[in-house]
Amino acid sequence: MTSVVKRQAMIRQAIVVLAGALFGTGLLVSGMTSPAKVIGFLDVTGDWDPSLAFVMAGAVAVYSLVFSWISRRGGNPWFDSQFHLPTRRDLDLPLVAGAALFGLGWGLAGWCPGPGIVSAASGSVDAIVFVVAMLAGMYAHQRWSTRVGP
Question: How far apart are CA 137 and CA 116, in angstroms?
Answer without folding.
Answer: 14
